[in-house]
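Researcher: Go.
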Amino acid sequence: MIARRNTQHGSGLGSVRWVVDRTFAHLHQFKRLLVRYERRDDMHEAMLSLGCCLVCFHRYRKSFCNEF
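Model: Structure:
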């Protein structure tokens, strides 16, 4: 059972769920990861790694440009 937002629950599950949901939302902007076109696992993993690198790069650049 998933607890409702802003309520206490004893299991501790779901306490950082929004991080995972947000990460999937960022990765789904790349259509190749949303709909799996590659049949080979290594190609899909390479696309996933590339997507993660791009998400991190954009977040880093966004935070770096706001400092100046």
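Model: The mean pLDDT is 76.
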